[in-house]
């Protein structure tokens, strides 16, 4: 059997370990056995292929962690919404569509980060113009949305669409999403741990679409975006900001359906008129 210097064999072993192999593979017990140099060379080739495969396979996207379930977890340690602007460049339209589609198909639809995955029929990712200047954010899907996989398609959705039309826009010219992508049972408000598990998706949607104005619909969406526990009545009608994007809180369409008084209607319409002015939209021809 050929002689292999100990130093050279040691170098081969170190090379294998650096590439992820615990030891040099042993040859099978047969009548004639390959020389140690050939064994080391074979192990080195195998290790190289193993390392290349590891590099070529992209890591699985991380899933949002479930936060504590205490009622104050959502706002722990916060002093208002984040103020640092989004510094990443705005993506071209095609790349926006691709990024959102991949997030939906590869992450949201298979997400099991919170208990809402156990009772959903469909996830509801969101939809609209990826270049929209106006984005609406609600709290979560209802029964109709859960069945269809689309946001705001029930009675509240019909009212929201009338509001959008009254602003001189069409539904497909805005982007609509929710803070959670699965329906909370009984249409209840999302729990704090459910919100924190799901909202990383929403944050990425905002960063990709990059609207000029966000309208938060209802208390859960408003409190998340603005990182506050202040009551809705004190937040709506006033401009706020999230990472350089103007935010206007207003009442959720479902709230209007339950409390459709002239006073509430005027308040919501006033909020939306401020949004129109901020976006430079023409004065509407009708009210909601």
Give your account of this protein's structure.
With 288 residues, the chain is of the alpha/beta class. It has a domain of 187 residues: 3-Layer(aba) Sandwich (Uracil-DNA Glycosylase, subunit E), CATH 3.40.470.10. Helix content is 42%, strand content 9%. It contains 10 helices and 6 strands, in the order H-H-H-E-E-H-H-E-H-E-H-H-E-E-H-H. The protein has a 6-stranded mixed beta sheet, sandwiched between helices. A hairpin with a 2-residue loop joins strand 5 and strand 6. Helix 1 runs parallel beside helix 2 and helix 3 packs antiparallel against helix 6. The longest helix is centred in the first third of the chain and has 21 residues. The radius of gyration is 27 Å and the shape is globular. The protein starts with 5 loop residues before the first helix and ends in a 9-residue tail after the last helix. The N terminus is likely disordered.
Structure in a nutshell:
With 288 residues, the chain is α/β, with parallel strands linked by helices. Helix content is 42%, strand content 9%.
